[in-house]
Amino acid sequence: MVIQTSRKKAPGISGKSQVLFAVVFTARYLDLFTNYISLYNTCMKVVYIACSFTTVWMIYSKFKATYDGNHDTFRVEFLVIPTAILAFLVNHDFTPLEILWTFSIYLESVAILPQLFMVSKTGEAETITSHYLFALGVYRTLYLFNWIWRYHFEGFFDLIAIVAGLVQTVLYCDFFYLYITKVLKGKKLSLPA
Known about the structure:
By secondary structure, the protein is mainly α.
């Protein structure tokens, strides 16, 4: 099967958001070296980390010519530094791995902001980018249902994960509205003037 190179592009994708996701999964899964749960769990953690870094490599190297760095200008230090401080101050257990896990939860809740900022800066998004953002938003929304399920059936409650998930879902709400009112009706996602 031959794939046309015209489909191999990275326009409209925020490389900064992808770097943040790579940091998220790396910080979250550093326990690979200390806690063995199962082969499946270990493999999935490695896959998440590998896919995250592969995506970053593809954006900044392989598809560099189509990456829109001029619009991907969000200052990620405004996300990384506050979430790191918050993780240091508010966590379940003051240990290095727990602080890193908490940092990853906080950072994941805002890691999509460079992507949303890029869409707002350009005023529109390609259909495939819109579908990608919608899938990420649905993933986080379903994650909230996971926490409700776990609380109801297992009695497990993680306030840090729930609050971070709520923050991330709220950040997607405006995008969800635009996606439903435009993209699902066959129009290109463009922001109101």
